[in-house]
Every structure is written in structure tokens, then in C-alpha cells.
Predict the structure.
Amino acid sequence: MAYRPTVRAANGAVATGHHLATEAGIAALRDGGSAVDAAIAAAAVCAVTKPSATSIGGDVFALVYDARQREVIAYNGSGAAPRSIDVEALRASGYPTRGAVMATVPGCVAGWGDMLAAHGRLGLDRVLAPAIAYAEDGFPVSPVLSSAIAQRAALISADPECARIFMPRGRLARPGEMLQQPDLAWSLREIARDGADAFYRGAVAERLAEGIALAGGSIGREDLASHRTDTPEPISVEHRGLRVYGQPPVSQGHILLEEIAIADGLDLVAMGWGSAELVHTMVEIKKLAFADRDAFSGDPRHVDFEPRRLFDHSFVAQRRKTIRGHASERADAGELAVAAHTTYLAVADRDGNVVSLIESVFSVFGSATVVPGTGILLNDRLRGFSLHERSPNTLAPGRRPVHTLNTVIALDGSTPRFVFGTPGAQAQVQSNFQLAAALIDFGMDVQEAIEAPRWYHESGRTLKLEGRFPEDVRRTLAGKGHEIDLLPDWDDVTGGAQAIAVGENGVFSAGADPRREGVAAGY
């Protein structure tokens, strides 16, 4: 039984990481907007109200199911390393803690604009209106945001603009106090009026380039002007009669799909939900998929990487055979045939369109650098690159790093059945794997699936378990060689998921994660 009730509605549903964003999405649907209009309205509000997680100075990834075209379209709104980045200096010194030098070209605004141009109905000015109002007039600081500011106080106070905005009274912002961002409101109004061009080639771009240069960053006018949203072919696998779509590279969504493909040949239901056997098996599958990521994944514009080879039946069968009854210290990559901080939202409308969207500034508060006169907090996505020259994900000018950001849509034939995802850095594809098993294999209600106890694995034999796993499960896992690290009962290191299920009668069931501050609503 779930602690929160599942939200059920017949006309549309929105589940986001902040209640004001959910309200903005529902308002867009009520005004006749599409799922994409609602998703961008909500995402823009998150970029104002959740600055520790997202910003228009960050990136966005999305899967959109277009009911008219009856297909899933992938959007990769991530930017590249600047052309003038000094790679050798970074290899010699290592990455700094934060700063403008850590930013890649922000892809968020271009991604929003391209999605709206293809699938929107309301227009950019209407869609951005709630975010502009919250930036200009302010919004009440939540306990989650207040805590994030307190935890990063030293970094925030080191940047004058960050300190001015997030410590407006010369101290930490307290829950319930109003937080205004008038410079950000200016940037959003410019974008609402002139479109994404304002950000990449117009007035906002001019202020960005000048401010970044003064802050010691490398992103210049040419980097901004040449940015384009990527729309690669989505990737998918079959599982239990559904076609599960994931985010293609440079997202690491292929990890989730490889996990699902390996699990597809096993009877997870017979193992029992929450059992030690199920957890052990899924953790070992996770280790295999992450090893393959490290060996093969990189920017497909620069590296010969075709993720569909990871789902080939013979390759998956070989990987499945390596699973043993005892925890492995590490997993080796398979042999292919030749050939931070984040927020997630889900939206479904009554016309059959659905959106699975995630955006991020990477670390908490990104680079901890706000460009003067813009209110724009820069990402620190450069940290997503490897500094090892032989890595397929090595840092180089013009390349995009591999992203943890990934989203999921599952179709039954050509009908959406599930839309889900979660923030949580490396936990994303692990928690999404658990959500997929709960929803698809075990047939759980969305809120029940979101609230189920989660595991999280980083490296070696250490396995982090939420405290709600029973003692006998923990003991059995320890007997299989896992070194158990007990988390609190509800720990946001495992993410903060949102999900929507579409019933055969068209009724939407939406859920949001109590581990963070997400809210689901419908009408």
C-alpha cells in the first residue's frame, strides 16, 4: 500500500519535481495546450524554482510520443565543450571544484524551442509566462531549496551573483521567504519574445558571452551561435509485450535498455518482488551494463558507438550467462561484434500525446556561477568528460560528454502505457530499472512502484539498501557476498521519480516520489 494516493484523471496528468511546476503544466493543458506545451511550461518553472537542480544554463533530454505521427521522437538538448577549452591544462591540473570554466554550451532553451515548434499549440510567450512571473515576483523558498543553499553556502558565497540571488538578505534563504530573480525574468522575457535565437544569437547571448569571459569561462559567441538540438533516432527494446523506449546517446539511456534486455530472458516475477534473489540479480545485471558503458559509450559524432549492438540477442545472451549467485567485485565489458543534479517530469494529454523530460545543471547549483545581468546559472557538465585520452568519452573541444540524463516511454503497440523517469545521477538508470520491473513485470500501481524500497550500487561489492528492506533480505544478500550499506528508509540518493500510467480506458494514473518534493496532478 502506498503512502501517497495515486492521482487519477481522465483529461490529462502532470507529475513534476515541484508543485508550482505541476500547477503550471495543468494550467497549460486546461488552456488547450498539448503535452509538450505543458511539459515546457513546467520545465521552465522548475528552472526558476529549483535552481539547485536545473537552469536555462543547463541541458534537457526528452522523449515525445506524438499521437498524430504515432511515433516517439527523441530530443537531445545538450551542448558541447567550448572550442577554446584548454584540454591539456585541465588534464594537468584536474577539474576545479566549480566555476564558469566547467560549463558546456547550454542546450536547454534550444531544446524547448524545437519541441514547441514541432508539437506545441500555445506559443512560447504563453508557455513561459508562469516562469517569468515566478522569476519577477518571486516564489516561496521550499525546505528542500533552503537546505540545498545551506549545504552549498561556501560555493554560493564565492560567486557575487550567486550570493546576491540565493542569499538576498546576506544570509541563507529560509523556508517560506520569497526569492526573486529579476535578471532571470529579463532573460526569459527576451526568449519569450524572440525565441531561442535570443539565447544563442541575440541580446541574451551577448550578455552571456561577455559575462562568461569575465568569469574565466570559455564559451564564446561562436559556441552559442553554432549550437543545435540533436534529434537522433530513439532506441528501444521489447519487454513483456511492450516496446520500451530510452534516450539515445549522448545519454546513457542505453544502460537501462541493456539492463531490461538482459532481464527479459529471466523470470523476475518468480523470484518475488523485494526478494534477495531479485535484488541480487538486478544488481549484477546493472554491473554488466555499466561496464559496457565505460568501454564503449561516447559522443556518436566523434566515436564509433552504436548502442543497438548492446541489445543484440546473442550479445545479451552472453552477458546473461555471466551472472552468478555470488556478488561480483567488478564486471568486465562484453565483446561487441565489430561493426548530478537534475529534475524529471512526465506529462500526458487527452489527445494521446505524452512527454518524458529531464533537465539538469549536473552538480548541485551547477558551476555555482551566475552570469551577471542574465540571472542564468551555468552548468558544470564538463565534469561529465573523462580526462583519460583513451576513453571514448574523453574531453575535446566541440564534443559532448556522456550524460546520466535519460527518460522512458513504454508503448503497447502504438499506444503509450507508461511514462517515467527520475533524477539521481548514476542512480537514474538503476532506479528506472527497478521502476520498469515494478510497473511492467509485477504490474504495480504507479505510486506503489515509486514508493517501493530501492537499492543503489556504485562500485565493488558495496550495495546500498533503503532501510525498509526486511532484515532477512539483507542477511541473504550479505550471504551472497554483498557488503550492505544501510540507507535511511527514504533516501533521495536513489532519485525522485515521477510516473504516469495510461489505462486501456484512457484514464491516467500519476505518481510522484515522497523522497523529494515532487507532486502529481490531473484534471
The chain is about 35% helix and 20% strand. The chain has a mean pLDDT of 92. The first strand starts at residue 7 and ends at 9. The longest helix spans residues 276-296.
